[in-house]
């Protein structure tokens, strides 16, 4: 829809987003609003810590899986990735934008009880952007899942595909995914009454519309393909790890690999849950609790990765400093040479505490 901006047209369809006769205020959901907002805000603080660690510590860049997980958080690497992979990125802006909309924006509107018709242009515009970032993050999850399978089952092929320029090109592909879904499809719009994002804004004029009117076939294909691809890949990975764990060749599967795979599986689980529920509830009436679960899964999709890294990865956790203040303690001792009447030496010891 947003492509119309470049044509000098209004991107707001007067029929699909007709607010005639619709009240701009709805029932408030204070608890859910505070929960959504808090999850988004806390996740963004954790992002800053983890992204800083990925950014400034070279060892993490040596592993393709960490590079992919970094761009899962930092979904906009720009076309400069074709030229240079190192330090040319804008840390966390797209994923933080997603959290601002799907967590903090949703939380504020739930607290205030505002229907999308309060400002439909605002809701549609940012709904398009967050729709694009959702699909872009799904693409990165698929890349991450495939990377885990390749490194386990076909390590030579994995090293060839997930290193150097091939990896840079692969990490740029989701940008086109974002452009398509953000500019050329209908958006997801937050509905306070349902406490989740829906394709139909549920105004008085559109409430009775056939769901097919708002169908985005790319959305359906993306979500079902994500569920299938993630399920198949991690079934193969788990079967492989289980087989070797029960055999004498357990040493062939390193502890580091198992640790990183667990992190990736947890990160991908939110995608799996969110993909299923967000498709199903567009076309079938579900109890409101499932709408909340879907919304929490979406927030977890963008906000869970840094928490997972901090809990399960001691390497990342050991590199994080919560502040840059350095406390210096000086212990000085002076010895006076009474025979010469002068100061022999002053020793200072400086201890730096991070």
UniProtKB/TrEMBL annotation:
Domain of life where this protein originates: Eukaryota
Family matches, as Pfam families: 7TM_GPCR_Srt (PF10321)
Residue spans crossing the bilayer: 34-56, 68-85, 97-116, 122-146, 167-189, 219-243, 264-283, 289-312
Keyword list, A-Z: Membrane, Transmembrane, Transmembrane helix
UniProt entry tagged with the keyword Transmembrane helix: yes
UniProt keyword annotation of Transmembrane helix present: yes
Name listed for the protein in its UniProt record: Uncharacterized protein
Taxonomic source organism: Caenorhabditis remanei (Caenorhabditis vulgaris)
Species classification: Eukaryota, Metazoa, Ecdysozoa, Nematoda, Chromadorea
């Amino acid at each position: 829809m947003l492509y119309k901006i470049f044509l000098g047209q209004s991107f707001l369809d007067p029929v699909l987003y007709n607010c005639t006769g619709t009240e701009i205020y709805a029932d408030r959901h204070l608890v859910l609003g505070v929960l959504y907002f808090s999850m988004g805000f806390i996740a963004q603080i954790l992002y800053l810590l983890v992204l800083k660690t990925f950014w400034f510590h070279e060892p993490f860049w040596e592993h393709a899986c960490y590079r992919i997980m970094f761009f899962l958080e930092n979904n906009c690497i720009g076309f400069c990735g074709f030229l240079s992979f190192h330090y040319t990125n804008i840390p966390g802006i797209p994923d933080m934008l997603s959290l601002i909309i799907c967590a903090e924006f949703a939380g504020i509107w739930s607290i205030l009880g505002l229907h999308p018709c309060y400002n439909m242009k605002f809701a549609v515009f940012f709904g398009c952007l967050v729709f694009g970032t959702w699909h872009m993050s799904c693409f990165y999850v698929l890349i991450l899942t495939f990377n885990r399978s390749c490194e386990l089952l076909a390590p030579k092929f994995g090293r060839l595909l997930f290193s150097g320029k091939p990896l840079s090109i692969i990490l740029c592909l989701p940008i086109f995914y974002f452009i398509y879904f953000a500019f050329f499809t209908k958006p997801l719009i937050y509905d306070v009454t349902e406490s989740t994002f829906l394709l139909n804004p549920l105004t008085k004029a559109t409430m009775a519309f056939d769901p097919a009117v708002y169908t985005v076939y790319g959305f359906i294909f993306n979500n079902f393909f994500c569920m299938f691809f993630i399920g198949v890949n991690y079934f193969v990975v788990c079967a492989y790890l289980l087989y070797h764990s029960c055999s004498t060749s357990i040493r062939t599967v390193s502890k580091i690999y198992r640790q990183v795979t667990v992190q990736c599986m947890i990160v991908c689980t939110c995608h799996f849950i969110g993909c299923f529920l967000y498709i199903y509830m567009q076309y079938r009436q579900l109890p409101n609790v499932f709408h909340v679960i879907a919304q929490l899964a979406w927030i977890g999709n963008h906000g869970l990765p840094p928490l997972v890294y901090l809990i399960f990865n001691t390497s990342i956790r050991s590199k994080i400093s919560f502040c840059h203040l350095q406390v210096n303690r000086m212990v000085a001792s002076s010895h006076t040479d009474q025979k010469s009447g002068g100061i022999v030496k002053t020793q200072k010891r400086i201890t730096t505490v991070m």
